[in-house]
Amino acid sequence: MIALPTRAGKPDATLAKAVDLAREVVLEVAEPGEVGDHLGAQAEGERIVTHQFACVRPGYPGWYWSVTLTRAKRGKDLTVNEVVLLPGDDAIVAPAWVPYKERLQPGDLSPGDLLPVEDEDARLVPTYLVGDDPLDPPMDADARAQVRRVAEDLGLGRVRTLSREGIDMAAERWYAGPGGPESPLAKSAPDSCWSCGFLVRISGSLSETFGVCANGNANDDGRVVSLDHGCGAHSEVKLARKQQPLPMPEHVFDTLTDDEYELI
């Protein structure tokens, strides 16, 4: 069964009886074998009725044909408004379209691909604005221009840098990712990264929560990890006696001569 939309109001009797006309209209756009049983008629308004027919076209389970008819007041001639194929509640439909920037995942970019950043991206602010304390009085245009010239003289080079929002978004993404404390690797680790000798500290506000792993034998080598992350390659990890490999036996020297070997 297909769940069809319901509307209040009693359908016009003349239009509701025009099932054969509605089917003929559908057959103008569909093959005879694609139109199934009549599913009912719904009132769309005064002297406006929509008929529904089951769709049996291969690949369209749960869809139905919809034909809308109307007539003038006291008129006997029926007019076709539209005929469409619509999905029911259980129909298979394409997923909602998502802009490509929202679909991108780390690793999707290939060599030569370009991903421009919008001018008003909230993650970035002009470099000369960085360091402004919200509690300080706002800088006027002359003061900002002076700061910009100083930044250029110092060779900062970057036109824009991370905003407070950009830093917070990165921190949330890293903390919830595989380098955070909730990953399976971290939950089974003997200790946390904050005490590991392979942790490289970073500067700025993110240094209070994150660092970079520099252990070439670790899964996270070269990646940002939270200080409460961890893995089995911690610099201070020690194997218990039962976990240590068994010692190899001493070498056996073969003292048999060729003559003695033949006598065996």
Structure description:
The chain has 264 residues and is α+β, with helices and mostly antiparallel strands. The protein folds into 3 domains: 75 residues, Nuclear Transport Factor 2, Chain: A; 44 residues, no CATH class; 72 residues, no CATH class. The strands form 3 sheets. The protein has a 4-stranded antiparallel beta sheet, with helices on one face. It has a 3-stranded antiparallel beta sheet with strand order 7-8-9. Strands 5-6 form a two-stranded antiparallel ribbon. It is flat, with a radius of gyration of 37 Å. It starts with 12 loop residues before the first helix and ends with a helix. This is DUF3027 domain-containing protein. InterPro entries: DUF3027 (IPR021391).
The gist of it:
It contains 7 helices and 9 strands. It is an alpha+beta fold and 264 residues long.
Average residue-wise pLDDT: 84
Strand order of the largest sheet: 1-2-3-4
Radius of gyration, whole Å: 37 Å
CATH class division of the largest domain? Alpha Beta
Distinct helical segment count: 7
Spell the H/E element sequence: HHEEEEHEHEHHEEEH
For the structure shown, list the relevant keywords.
264 residues; alpha+beta; Nuclear Transport Factor 2, Chain: A; 3 domains; 4-stranded antiparallel sheet; 20% helix; flat
Any chance you could write out the topology, listing elements then pairs?
Blueprint: H1 13-16, H2 19-27, E1 35-45, E2 48-55, E3 63-71, E4 78-87, H3 100-103, E5 124-126, H4 141-153, E6 160-162, H5 164-176, H6 184-187, E7 199-201, E8 210-213, E9 224-226, H7 258-263
Antiparallel strand pairs: 1-2, 2-3, 3-4, 5-6, 7-8, 8-9
